[in-house]
Description:
The structure is a homodimer.
Chain A: H1 2-16, H2 30-46, H3 53-60, H4 64-70, H5 74-84, H6 98-113, H7 116-128, H8 133-140, H9 142-145, H10 147-158, H11 168-185, H12 192-204
Amino acid sequence: MVALMQAKTAKRLAKRGPTAKKTALVRGEPVVRGILAATMEELAHAGYSALRIEDVAARAGVNKTTIYRRWPTKEELVRAALLSMGDDTICAPNTGALRSDLLALARKMVAIAGSPQGRSLTRVILAEGPDSELMTIAKSLRDVHEAVPRAMIEAAESRGELAPGIDAMLLFNVIGSAIHERLFLNRESVDDSFLNSLLDLLLLGAGPRRRPA
Amino acid sequence: MVALMQAKTAKRLAKRGPTAKKTALVRGEPVVRGILAATMEELAHAGYSALRIEDVAARAGVNKTTIYRRWPTKEELVRAALLSMGDDTICAPNTGALRSDLLALARKMVAIAGSPQGRSLTRVILAEGPDSELMTIAKSLRDVHEAVPRAMIEAAESRGELAPGIDAMLLFNVIGSAIHERLFLNRESVDDSFLNSLLDLLLLGAGPRRRPA
Lengths: 213, 213
């Protein structure tokens, strides 16, 4: 994804010619991280509809043209901010077994969803309504978010750890739902004991175990 | 639960003596249903903290003393309103097999959670914050809400349909979480095709099936 964004930046720069190069912002630079963090904060504060680039600029302490230069529309800015969430922490675990991979990923999901950023994002998405632009942006990022599960499923399949015919992506979605429900609706903490019971249920199944190999 | 409430009413009447009997409201009477429905509507409109008995009375078209007589506190009124949700529809399915019981229950959960009442209740609970009185009331109703799953688990165990050592209540919670996530966070519909994939995953498990009986 970082590569994709760098490619896009390069393309945009090429259109503008060599002079634009000096002002290009590279992802990972402190100013970029500051703008994206400010965007998340404004999103939590004002919601998507009322979010203004001016307010993000003020919060980040930059000129608004600095933002427009890299993200010409509000949609692009918010998309980049959402993508930046958990950027440093989400990568496919590689423990050598599906169960321990799932436990490692679930712990990361708990950390991100339970963070102040994760909590306010959930609140904003719930408040914006079913056909909101924010919802559309969030859904468009699904492919990006599913990259980690896909890598884990592939590794598990190569080790023969998944039953044939099972909807493996649903396995990940159900883990996410169970974590969100506890954190946001029941307001309970999620510890390893809960995650282990959940993985027992999802990997072994609740039904009797008398099927042949 | 109905029996319990009737017993409480009888006790209250006994304290007041025979004259109170004329004004007693019996659960299921149109006026009671009207007050509880008005309470849910006010709750959706104002939230729990700002909910006033006067406004419920006005919405239901009754005198506020009619409400206070049966539910002396706001907490009791809201608890009764929450209990009345789905009262007519939730009873343990009895299809003779765990899987079809779960499918029947899941369909009812979708109908209740997706109703305007269910949606506004979720919104209000999410908005009220972690230590809200409404959250405390909702949690105190957990025993009541778990009566149906407990009956289904008992029946399934007697038919040998549950693996030993599995957390069967978690099975129900996970079905609920998956439905809520789709309805409230992803804003997607929940159809039988989704429910069947979910039940495949939860009953058969995602892991390889080569364990002995």
